[in-house]
Design brief:
The chain is 22% helix and 42% strand. β6 and β7 form a beta hairpin. The chain has 154 residues and is α+β, with helices and mostly antiparallel strands. It has a single domain, classed as Transcriptional Co-activator pc4, Chain A (Roll), CATH 2.30.31.10. The protein is built from three helices and eight strands; from the N terminus they run ββαββαββββα. α2 runs antiparallel to α3. InterPro entries: WapI (IPR056510). Pfam families: WapI.
Length: 154
Amino acid sequence: MTQYSETYFEIFDGGDMIRVEPYQAIKDGSALDWDRNWIKTKVKIKGGVFSGQYVADFMTTDFELLKRDFKKLDKDFNATANFEPLEGQLKLNISGDGLGHFEVKCIAQDQPGVGGTLSFILSFDQTELARLINELDKITKAFPISGDMTLKNE
């Protein structure tokens, strides 16, 4: 039986999907604010006949920024949202058509610069935004921005 966490966000389109599941603060007890904001995250992807999963390191701020971007999409269907973490292990570029349809360009890399890369496109509509915002809100509550960072949780 597969175990699923309550702390994840997932975009799916038919059989294609991306699931991002943060599960552990990397250096929770560090004296440096920067280090305390890194999270070990399981990434599961399926694009066409290709699929895989890997562990990536993202920052608490990455999830907060994406949550804010999704809130903008919910108000403006022409807006864009981006998930572009520092390490480059996953990039999501989301653009709206103004009518409530969104395209997600996904680039997943197990080891940026030297590892394998999977690129694919997903789509969803505005009815998914509330769920996505809620999922990201759970993540930002479970892994809040820590210390003296310029960005704070909403």
